[in-house]
Every structure is written in C-alpha cells, then in structure tokens.
Amino acid sequence: MTVIKGLEGIVATTSSISSIVDGVLTYRGYDIDDLAEHASFEETAFLLWFGNLPATAELEKLKRDLSDFAAIPEPLIAQMKLYPKDANTMAALRSAVSGLALYDEAADDMSRSANEIKAVKLQAQIPTIVAALARIRQGLEPIAPKPGFSIAENFLYMLRGEQPDMVSVKALDTGLVLHADHELNASTFAGRVTVATLSDIYSGVTSAIGALKGPLHGGANEAVMRMLEEIGSFENVEPYIRGKLARREKIMGFGHRVYKNGDPRAKHLMKMSRELGAMKGDTKLYDMSVKIEELITGQKGLKPNVDFYSASVYTQLGIDRELFTPIFAISRVSGWTAHILEQYEDNRIIRPRAEYTGLVEQKYVPVTER
Ligand SMILES: CC(=O)SCCNC(=O)CCNC(=O)[C@H](O)C(C)(C)COP(=O)(O)OP(=O)(O)OC[C@H]1O[C@@H](n2cnc3c(N)ncnc32)[C@H](O)[C@@H]1OP(=O)(O)O
Ligand SMILES: O=C([O-])CC(=O)C(=O)O
C-alpha cells in the first residue's frame, strides 16, 4: 500500500460543480473573477445547484423561496437561547443546524425534489441562525428575517436591527460569491462522505460545518483577525511576523493545498479591504495586512488564501470575528448542498483503506492478570 498523507493530489470523485485548473477557479465553467464582478450570491447559488445561470423568472422564484423559508422554528430559537453565551459560534451553529432536521418532516425523504427544497431551506435558514446566535450572545432578541431582502441584506439587517447601507450589502454579497464553492475542499469532502452512506442532507451539512470550523480550513479567517489584534499596530507587524517565523509557527491565512501561485479569490478581498478602509478613512488593518503579505511572501514564498483579507473586510463591515467562520458557512452551504445533490445522483459509499501500523499477535490477558 502507498499512503499519501492528507490525500494530497488524490482524485477522489468526478464533479461538474467547480474546478481549479492552473490556478483558475470556475463555478460551472464561469470564472470566479467574472462572477465576483457581476453575479449576485443568489444567482451563484442557483448556478451551483442547477448548473446554469437563472433566467429572470427563475431568479425571482428562488428569491421568493429563500424569503419564504428564512424563518427558523420557534423551539429551535428557544434551544439556542439555552446554549452557553460564550460557546464557540461554529459549535453552536453545528448544533443548531443539526437541530433543524428535527423540525423538517421531509428530512429523510431522499427524492431529488425533496432534497433540492432542503438545499434551498438550509441556504435560507443558516443566515437566520447565525444572526440569531450573534444577538442571543449579546443578550438581545433575535430579529425575524425581512421578506424581499437578499441573503446579504437580510443577514446584516438581522444582525444589526436596522436597514444596512448598500456598500456593506454589496461587499458582503461579493464575499459570499467568492466563498460559495471550492471543488473537493475538506468540508465539502466531509459532507460528501457523510451522505455517501445515504444519510440525510442535514447530516451532511452538519459534518461539513464541523470540518469548516478547524483553523486549517474556514476557521483560519477568525485566526487571522486574532493575529491582527495581537499585532495591534503597523510598527509591530515586522517584529511579530519575524518572531513567528523564527519559532516556525504557521501564519494563518497563508498557503494552500492546491494553489501554489496564489488564490484567485484573495485579490478581490484585498481590493475590498483597501476600498472599505479608504472609505472609512482608516486603512490601518489593510496596511498591516499588506505588510504581513510582503513579509510572508518574501520570506516563505507563501501567498494569501481566501481567509486572509476576508478578516479585515468583515471587521471593516463592523462584524465580530466570532462570526467570520459562520459567514463562510452561510456562503459555502450553497456549495455543500450542490455537492451533496451530486453525490446522491451517482452514489457509492466512500470507504478507503488504512495501512495498519499497530501491534500484532497480541494475546488476551484477563484484567486481574494485567
Ligand atoms: C478556506 C481555506 O481552507 S484556505 C486555507 C486556510 N488555512 C490557513 O490559512 C491555515 C494556514 N495554512 C496552512 O496550514 C496550510 O498552508 C494549509 C492547511 C492551507 C495547506 O496545508 P498543506 O497542503 O498540507 O501544506 P503543508 O502544511 O504541508 O505546507 C507545506 C510547507 O509550507 C509550510 N506552510 C504552509 N502554510 C504555512 C503557513 N500558513 N505559515 C507558515 N508555513 C506554512 C509548511 O510548514 C510546510 O513547510 P515544510 O515543508 O518546511 O514542513
Ligand atoms: O480548497 C481548500 O482546500 C480550501 C479552500 O480554499 C476553500 O475551501 O475555499
């Protein structure tokens, strides 16, 4: 047996949802640069689920469905109020999404049409859950979703309790487009492994949230912000980063399993970070981030990934760092569910092998003789 640690370079499935070839990311054949510039998140989700950009009537129907499904069950809100206020937000999200299944009578209906509806429902309800968790943590009442708002607008509205400004809505919407799917990343793979046992879509998304939480994956965006806070000032960037490199510690938000010459999403987030800073008249976070990039790329040859500049973007939108990875989940649930639907279409249980390296030929000894 040849063991490839971390399955690097192993092709584990075919997929027609997104691809990364020569550093170019596409969703259903559309370049991410084109989508980031022109598409809304709702159009992007439709594209991932159904394989084509929606016509006007299809997009309007999807928006209506997302609005209609956005409310979450009252008993779930009551349960969320019982979670410890200082619980990890991704752990709370993982519990709440698992809980959603209990209130969906069609949770175990494995027909394509029922699963498509559940994909749209999960997409609609996860932003409501994240906003409710954020408010409950602050001792505030959750705010009900507003019909007719986009996902980005509704999320900021439910978080802040007031109509969000259009610059913030556009920035968040673009962020959601950029994070929506990414081939066979760890959380998508976790979701596909789960549903390949013919378990339900809620189980798949719950597994995926658990995998996204880790700091080597989606959790890196929160870790980047923690690092920026620890550094504190532009002047401290260089000594801080040099110290980390000397101790051979990882710098969060840098490096990637697939991209070796840079993540095509990072430049969009970098631009957004610069523009938001300039608009607010405070470019400190952007300037610090650029300096970190200079040092890491110069010294290690590592480039920023999608998580690096998203930290300063979200902070400049007034969002707490505990919500960064949940926001990633708000976007990525579109990709996870597209992959889950694809897995069901042509399923085989995913069950690789392990090379055994443990003890052999052990003889049982009764407990009293050990
Ligand atoms: C949405 C996303 O999931 S994007 C990724 C988010 N994660 C992060 O930003 C966390 C920081 N980055 C990392 O830990 C890694 O680069 C990963 C997890 C993204 C990729 O991991 P792998 O493909 O296994 O790369 P691996 O860890 O083997 O790195 C190769 C070399 O680069 C080094 N390296 C990789 N990333 C970093 C980093 N961020 N800081 C310092 N060194 C790094 C490794 O230490 C290793 O060096 P070595 O060969 O001397 O041991
Ligand atoms: O693909 C990966 O390994 C991680 C990543 O960038 C993502 O999930 O967006």
Automatic annotation (TrEMBL):
<dbReference type="InterPro" id="IPR011278">
    <property type="entry name" value="2-MeCitrate/Citrate_synth_II"/>
</dbReference>
<dbReference type="GO" id="GO:0006099">
    <property type="term" value="P:tricarboxylic acid cycle"/>
</dbReference>
<dbReference type="GO" id="GO:0036440">
    <property type="term" value="F:citrate synthase activity"/>
</dbReference>
<feature type="active site">
    <location>
        <position position="256"/>
    </location>
</feature>
<dbReference type="InterPro" id="IPR024176">
    <property type="entry name" value="Citrate_synthase_bac-typ"/>
</dbReference>
<comment type="pathway">
    <text>Carbohydrate metabolism; tricarboxylic acid cycle; isocitrate from oxaloacetate: step 1/2.</text>
</comment>
<protein>
    <recommendedName>
        <fullName>Citrate synthase</fullName>
    </recommendedName>
</protein>
<dbReference type="GO" id="GO:0005975">
    <property type="term" value="P:carbohydrate metabolic process"/>
</dbReference>
<dbReference type="InterPro" id="IPR016143">
    <property type="entry name" value="Citrate_synth-like_sm_a-sub"/>
</dbReference>
<dbReference type="InterPro" id="IPR016142">
    <property type="entry name" value="Citrate_synth-like_lrg_a-sub"/>
</dbReference>
<dbReference type="GO" id="GO:0005829">
    <property type="term" value="C:cytosol"/>
</dbReference>
<keyword id="KW-0808">Transferase</keyword>
<feature type="active site">
    <location>
        <position position="307"/>
    </location>
</feature>
<dbReference type="InterPro" id="IPR036969">
    <property type="entry name" value="Citrate_synthase_sf"/>
</dbReference>
<comment type="similarity">
    <text>Belongs to the citrate synthase family.</text>
</comment>
<dbReference type="Pfam" id="PF00285">
    <property type="entry name" value="Citrate_synt"/>
</dbReference>
<dbReference type="InterPro" id="IPR019810">
    <property type="entry name" value="Citrate_synthase_AS"/>
</dbReference>
<keyword id="KW-0816">Tricarboxylic acid cycle</keyword>
<keyword id="KW-0012">Acyltransferase</keyword>
<dbReference type="InterPro" id="IPR002020">
    <property type="entry name" value="Citrate_synthase"/>
</dbReference>
